[in-house]
Amino acid sequence: MTLPLDSVRVLDLTTTIFGPYATQMLGDLGADVIKIEAPAGDPVRQVGPARNPGMGALFLGANRNKRGIVLDLKQEAHKQALWALIETADIFVHNMRAAKIEELGFGPRALLARRPDLVYAGLHGYGEAGLYADRPAYDDVIQGEAGIADLFRRRDGAPALMPSISVDKGAATLAVGGILAAYIKRLRSGQGGFVEIPMFEAMVAFTFVEHQYGGIFQPPLSDYGYPRMLSAFRRPHRTADGYLCMLAYTDKQWALFWSLTSRPELAKDERFATMAARSAHIGAVYEEAGKELALRSTDAWLELLKRHDIPAGAAKTLEEVREDPHLNAVGFFRSFAHETEGALEMPDMPYRFDQTPLPVRHGQPRLGDDTEAVLTEAGLDETAIAEILAVQKRPDA
Questions:
Q1: Quick one: pLDDT band at residue 397, thresholds 50, 70, 90?
Q2: pLDDT in tens, 329-387
């Protein structure tokens, strides 16, 4: 199949998860992603179980459909090699602090002066114009600063972190949208430009979609925080033999739900009859629903709720998700024979183009796997390539 980003070349100077997950999505969509690492490699190469040094599970999760090279940008010959690659690129992505990339000589002004049609993406921790511009940022820190940890405090009494690198992954998804918008602008105008995606601002925007709540009005009409999300009773409900997630949402769905319970008269309770009333009494809604859900088995409820078109699903373990019949029917978990790492299995992208899933075209690169081939394509001679290869130290070498 012809992929949406066929023939688009992306230079990927990112590490950890925020940047690599964003560029993996671009690679999945067909871009030729060149992952450029320092001689020590991306730190997450060392995270998680591995069959070979430098190929840990977390690295494998965010670096498929890429080629990999090693450049030491503290050395002039390596800088010149990167400039040669920039001449071949459509999109340049980094997640260094702005001061660091400027110090290396690859800030947006320098690149766009030479390549005004280049899409330059800076995946920063904080926006360049703000007071925090030079601070380091990681998922846990931004969960606190963006108010995500406070959501747990409002619900449970103490701040907590989501057991997921949700900031890195959420910001990466937003970054892809910004990068593709800049690329579409280039296709229309011939002009590239600098698109900045700061992790902090991205996640404040993401969190405040619902949790700005009454604060969207000036003066505020209520406190911050969407009450339905913050109810202590909004959780997987215990059934007679397990746990169930259920969300009757419309007035009709709630009336149908109460009709299935031991107390159908709750459908007439004025606290539960309308969306506005339920919003004002959301704790009571969930508490009473939870009492009823505890009276039947998970399977019994699922059958009843499905019959009445009320959204519900079992609260599954990660292992049960892997065995989910729907996911297996659509082939969501993709088997892949990696050249060095053997049999791997990866979750698919959610996209389908013309009913066809996106292919895994390249396995995750070992450190510097493609240095020689990529630099040869860029026009470097054998002597220059040999000098650059001399600093490359792969962990399995």
A1: very low
A2: 999 999 999 999 999 999 998 888 888 888 899 999 999 999 999 999 999 999 999 99
Listed in sequence order, the residues at least 6 apart from 255 whose beta carbon sits closer than 8 Å to its beta carbon are 267
**What are 257-270's pLDDT values in tens digits?**
999 999 999 999 99
Q: Are 312 and 306 in contact (CB under 8 A)?
A: yes
Neighbour-count burial for 164-199, b at 16+ CB within 10 Å, e otherwise: ebbbbebbbebbbebbbebbeebeeeeebbbbbbbb
Residue 396 has pLDDT above 90, yes or no: no
> Token pair of 301, please?
């409820």
Candidates 302, 262, 254, 257; CA nearest to 279 is 254
Question: Are 202 and 168 contacting, i.e. CB atoms less than 8 angstroms apart?
Answer: no
CA 46, 176, 78, 397: dihedral to nearest 10 degrees? 30
Angstrom distance (rounded) from CA 63 to CA 154:
36
- Is residue 11 within 8 Å of 67, Cβ to Cβ? no
Residues above pLDDT 90, as percent of the chain: 93
Q: In 3D, which of 276, 352, 373, 292 has the Cα closest to residue 1?
A: 352
Share of the chain residues as helix, strand and coil, in percent rounded to the nearest 5: 45, 15, 45
**Segment holding 244, helix H or strand E:** strand 243-246
Q: Which two tokens stand for residue 165?
A: 């690198």
- Compute the CA torsion angle 55, 373, 69, 194 (nearest 10 deg): -130
Q: Any residues with CB less than 8 A from the CB of 58 and at least 6 apart, and which?
A: 17, 44, 47, 48
Report field, pTM of the whole predicted structure over 0.85:
yes
